[in-house]
Amino acid sequence: MAQNAFEYKAKHGHYPLWNPNLFSGMPNYQVALQGKSILPDFTTILSLWLPKPMNFFFLACICFYILCVALRLNPVIGIFGSLAYAFSTYNAIIIGVGHESKMLAIDFMPLLLAGMMFTFNKRYWLGLAVTTLGAYQEIAVNHPQINFYFLLVAASITIAYLVNWIINRDWKHILLAAGITIGAALVGVAGSAVTLMTSYEYTKATMRGGKTISIEGDSVKQAATSGLDTSYALRWSLSKAETAVALMPEAFGGSSSKTLDENSHVVEKLTDKGVPEGSAMQAASGLPKYWGGMSDPSETTAGPPYLGVLVCLLAVIGFVIVRHPLRWALLAVTALAILMSWGKYLPGFNTFLFTHLPIYNKFRAPSMTMVIAELTVPIMAALTLQYILYREKSLPTGQAGKELLKADFKKILYALGGVLALLAIMYVMLDYNAAIDQRILAAYADPKTGNNDIARAIISGMKADRKAMFGGQVLRTFAFAAVLLGLLYLYLKNMVKPIIVVIALTLITVIDLLLVDKEYLNADNFVSPDELMSQNFTPTVTDQQILQDKDPDFRVFNSSGDWTQESRTSYFHKSIGGYHPAKLRIYQDIIEKWLFAGNQNVLNVLNTKYLILTNPQTNQQQLQPNPYAYGACWLVKSVRIVEGPVQEIQAIGNTNLRDTAIVQKTFSHAVIQPQWDSTASIKLRKFDNDTMDYSFSSSKPQFALFSEIYYPYGWNAYIDGKKAEYCKTDYVLRGLSLPSGQHAVRFVFEPSSYKKGANIAYTASFLIAILLLGGLFMEWRTRSRVNKSSSH
Prior knowledge:
The chain has 28 helices and 18 strands. With 792 residues, it is of the alpha+beta class. It has a five-stranded antiparallel beta sheet, with no helix packed on it. A four-stranded antiparallel beta sheet has the order 8-13-17-16, with no helix packed on it.
């Protein structure tokens, strides 16, 4: 979906602001955007120019290690925490499915938190430098949902430290820490002003900004919401028991793409019913292994947010025994993340948050909140190891630390025992049902007799499989817990040194995580650039036929697949469909009301010149030209004024839109009823992403429609160089009243948000460079003075 922007930049030297190849046209802000800055590419530098995907993992390691330094942890423990954070299974999953901006936002969370920790621990200059860099990088990757989750973590930690400072009456430190953190963060945020300002403006016009109508089947009603629909936003929720996948990756079957195999209990149950073994095995291989909260066919999951069993167990121990300002903060925000991840399975709580927590109603997929736990749990695990093995009060012999460990050992046993007991209780108490079971019952029931014995046998076998999966993962957790206790016991008995314990835990954790990660990111994900292009971006015969058309502006509707979830068509053509998690609201309404039904009227006004269909005989794509497309622009005989958006969207389904335009009453002041002139004409002369030129001629006033998506935040109309007011027409298009005579008409996309944001970001880039370099220099200077004074 960014290919058009890349081609435009190659030709003009900069990215366009409008993308015509995605959903008939939308701002390019969320696809490819470029501002002016003096700063280097810190992402590439910090990841040492490593190739994808290793750069993502390495960057996560580096940023988390800096956080461990800020927390004053032993270097070996820092390595343990960094590897655990980087190779958390969710990271491998999102890299595998291409969510690179999300991964980069996850990478930089520890860096920003490290800046806060340096500041909170009174290393002010270093805190200033790292917070500035961290805030800039975290915002610059442009993933507001991950930014929001980080803010919850930062707020929780700040409150915990603030309470401690207030108790100690450390007012000066409070003022310094607040000034440095807030100031550095604001400068870092300003460095991404162009992204933030355009995104904020764009959000108001998208699905995430609310809606004015509600479409349910054939019914259209007035609505007034300020965010996503609750029912939509709370989809992709973890079931309550599914939280256990944080330490038991295969307890709920892994990903939605996995299926049962020949060892499934389904085979056994079906053969008992007289089904041939081959048929039973074939039936099992078509059944889903995953049975968690997203097992409904309308929801899928690419895999579990597995954090590492030892990492989770160490964190639980830490929440019980570690005395650190972070303990309660990390526990509180982790618990909040788990409750939020339950989404629709905890409706009262999450609906309340969705309604009252600022900007939370702009986000979907509650299961994503486990990103918070992905950050907090490894931090707590690292703090636990530091507390157990390298406690500050320990004497050089280590005996004092071990005495303290002996005193805490019962608490450690209770903590681990509590976790294991809870898992055992879950194993016994779960009913092992899944949302998909009812569909399976319906699919395998005999339509003539209604007999569902076979369907019930399948469900019974699947439940047995689920119970075996969960039980096996519980036993796995018991084994890891025994290893952890064994290592701590050996350390307590002076049989191994602390570093051996940490190295052993690191090796076990990394091997464990990599084995699970390999299920979701493996050799199958890796292809050469040539192979990638050949498989995905070589034009088909259909593409080549369309590309021969040199008309400067027309659209293509590829209905041969899920056209709202694919972007390949956008690579070559101006597509009716595409993929984007934040489509324009008016376009989503048109999709739901008319495009899903393939309404010819709407396809015509969108200038859909070609349709790509699937030939039912050959199952191959075939091209169907649409001779009825209205073109890039046309003149109508009349304008019909309707009351509001409900009437407008309904009217376009039963109106001859070639002759009549539909305009809401709100825009009636901008409409002059046309006087039909058979000799009148309007034609597109030049198409550029951000500029469109038309020539118009008529002896009487006319009303012109332009087959371009209405977006009020930046598109301006000009008649002979003078700004003119245009209006929203036919629900998604632009309409313009034109006076008689010959005129040059131009539409220009010139959003003030981009210009202001670019200027702010460019200025901020100087401040970021100054604060980063100045902070590092002053930290070095301060440390040098301290070292000199201590040496004397």
